[in-house]
Design a protein that fits this description.
The protein has eight helices and 16 strands. The two termini are 42 Å apart. The mean pLDDT is 96. By secondary structure, it is α/β, with parallel strands linked by helices. 44% of the residues are buried.
């Protein structure tokens, strides 16, 4: 809650009209140039932290134990706040309106973007397009990256419970071993990728958590729980794969004498950057930073709830370089040593301002 309050207080100090409370903690602000009804565009930043204890020894280290901005959302918000101030000061020199969306809950299903869209954030006024940025520590500070078209994967959560009959580990023939069944399920589900998915459609099945209830070195448990993720870039295949995974797991467990509950929590859709908007934004970035500082990016199997916006209106989601090898700033996101080169903030706020003004037709001479 404090992040939203802080953002609202900064916008108030700049004299920018805003509304606090979107999706409970989100903030939406409005910068009106001349003839604001001519065209509206949106700029988006996410604002939340992650439940990670920060290990960096820096003056700006998280003050909240067990919570840190390990995904760069503080950079996104700070960049958009900086852009807000710049654009507010330039408002008499461009036409149209810029809607600033400080969005909560990007890291948790169903995703803050879906909530804000349902609340009408893309209405009254309706933006012609939306632009967002995300940190990329593998890219040097001063550089940015773009990819038109398909960019990031959909992401579904898998929750699997395998049930058997527990007992002594020395007499497995008297038991139905759910650990063995779960192991077969994990391996078998890889066939969804290797033998069912079209090779041209990127697909990933990964289990990151397996726990047994009551098991030990010599105890076969009654139950095993697993959690994983399924990711792809084709909605028809996504739905088909859900059915295949569920059927395979349940049938395999039954064939081995056990049972399986296979629950799929449908997550974010794939993120597809609008071709024209992204190519146009890339060219604007080249004008702002120089061609040597604008790179082409590959598709990624990571996911982002900005994808919801991209399903509704033309969208461009690009990456902001935040790394600095010479200073040892190389840790990836979602780690307890993630950090950014603060010079990236200048690029972040400057480029967002530039893209917004260019999309509205540029500054008057």
């Amino acid at each position: 809650m404090e992040t939203g309050k802080f953002i609202a207080s900064k916008l108030a100090s700049y004299g920018i009209r805003h509304e606090h409370g979107w999706g409970v903690n989100g903030v939406v602000a409005y910068i009106e140039g001349k003839n604001p009804s001519r065209k509206t565009i949106a700029l988006r930043a996410d604002i939340d932290a992650l439940p990670i204890t920060e290990m960096n020894d820096v003056s700006y280290k998280s003050q909240n134990q067990g919570v840190m901005h390990a995904c760069g959302h503080d950079v996104h918000s700070a960049s958009l706040l900086g852009a807000a101030r710049i654009l507010h000061e330039l408002r008499s020199e461009f036409e149209g309106m810029i809607k600033l969306i400080f969005q909560p809950a990007e890291e948790r299903l169903p995703g803050g973007a879906s909530i804000l869209i349902a609340e009408g954030v893309l209405e009254n006024p309706a933006p012609a397009n939306i632009i967002g940025q995300h940190v990329l520590p593998a890219l040097d500070t001063g550089k940015v990256g773009f990819r038109p078209g398909m960019f990031m994967a959909s992401a579904d959560e898998l929750y699997v419970t395998v049930r058997g009959k527990g007992g002594h580990g020395a007499v497995p023939h008297e038991c139905v071993d759910p650990v063995l069944i779960a192991s077969h399920i994990v391996v078998a589900l890889q066939q969804i990728v290797s033998r069912n998915a079209n090779p041209i459609v990127p697909t990933v099945v990964t289990f990151g958590k397996i726990n047994s209830t009551g098991g030990s070195t010599n105890v076969i448990p009654n139950e095993v729980k697993m959690e994983g993720t399924f990711r792809t870039m084709d909605e028809d295949w996504r739905s088909k794969a859900h059915g295949l995974m569920k059927k395979m797991a349940e049938t395999l467990a039954e064939s081995m004498g056990g049972s399986c509950d296979f629950h799929i929590e449908r997550g974010y859709p794939f993120l597809k950057n609008d071709e024209e908007l992204t190519l146009r934004s890339k060219q604007f970035a080249i004008e702002f930073l120089g061609a040597e500082n604008v790179v082409d990016l590959p598709m990624r199997m990571t996911a982002e709830d900005f994808a919801y916006y991209s399903q509704v209106i033309p969208a461009c989601f690009y990456r902001l370089g935040t790394g600095n090898t010479a200073r040892g700033i190389t840790s990836p996101i979602h780690t307890d040593t993630f950090d950014v080169d603060e010079d990236s903030l200048l690029v972040g706020m400057g480029l967002m301002s530039w893209l917004a003004v260019c999309e509205l037709g540029g500054l008057e001479a």
